[in-house]
Amino acid sequence: MRTFRDSGAGEPWSRQRLRLLLVTALVGALGVVVGVAMLIAQSVRPAEIVGDGAPPGGGFGALSPASVRDRIAAAPMALVDAAAATRPDPATELAPPIHIPDPAEGRGPAGVPVFGHTAEGAVAQLAAIDESVLEAMSVPQAREVHTAWVETGGPSFEEWDLTQNVTAFLRGARQGATKDVTTMVEVAPAGGLVKGTDGPDWTLACVLLDVVATIQTSYRMGWANCQRMQWTGQRWQIGTGTQPATAPSAWPSSKAALAAGWLTWTPDERSRR
Asked: How confident is the model at residue 173 (pLDDT cuts 50, 70, 90)?
């Protein structure tokens, strides 16, 4: 295997260097380093809008659909410890499941699997989009996925968080527009939740991903993402509007992930009967 070296120091990549690269790429401006600690800044509180998109104790009254969706998207989410994404701290109990349906046969645009017209299908669709982009770590692949899976009026390609993650990773790894063949990124969904809905065609979906990157050595972390998901008649796409509040990134199956409300990613056996 090719050895990656720092062009300045001439030394092989250390575990600390890879840790910095991965955290910086996946949390962008939210990642800072103090010594060897990875501090993921969170300025959020527990979310209150769930299920049908209405806040506890009442509805939204005469608010327009756009206002309802903006309130769901903007509602702050759980506060987790700054280092929760990079600190293994196994929970002693399993979070309740979120039952994830199987994808439809075949694949959709840009090779991304297509999931059905349910809120859980929207969560699965977001995870499939994230996985396709992050595992490729390729600007052209990210652009192809963005074109196919982000509605007009959604985040632009340059503003899209996945684009920023990919470019940060490639820049930090001193690689081109696509990761080198000796660089591996593996992504697997570990948790999910439905933050809110506005009818059957709109879901604020959130996923917690288990991410492992290898550049000479491996480093693992949890990374979370929320997006407005809009059913367009045939499939879910990332919808229009401002980016949702930051989701709490936590190590999969950790105490922090449990406390943040992440549900256990569970394939729905009922869909296979």
From this structure: confident
Q: Could you tell me if 90 and 255 are in contact, meaning their C-beta atoms sit under 8 angstroms apart?
A: yes
pTM above threshold 0.85 = no
How many residues are given for the chain? 273
3-class secondary structure, 37: strand
> Residue 61: phi, psi to the nearest 5?
60, -125
- Residues 203-260 have pLDDT tens digits of 999 999 999 998 876 667 888 999 999 999 999 999 999 889 999 999 999 999 999 9
> Smallest Cα–Cα separation from 99: which of 115, 112, 86?
115
Task: Please say whether the beta carbons of 236 and 228 come within 8 A.
Answer: no
Q: What angle do CA 118, 121, 124 make, to 5 degrees?
A: 160
Phi-psi region of 193 (alpha: psi -120 to 50; beta: other; left: phi over 0): beta
pLDDT in tens, 45-96: 233 333 343 433 334 344 566 789 999 999 999 999 889 999 999 999 999 9
Q: Are 222 and 40 in contact (CB under 8 A)?
A: no
The residue ranges of DSSP E strands in the chain, in sequence order, are: 31-34, 37-40, 97-100, 184-197, 202-215, 217-231, 236-238, 263-267
CA gap 12, 17 in Å, rounded: 10
Q: Where are the beta strands (DSSP E) in 91-155?
A: 97-100
Integer Cα distance of 207 and 187 in angstroms: 12
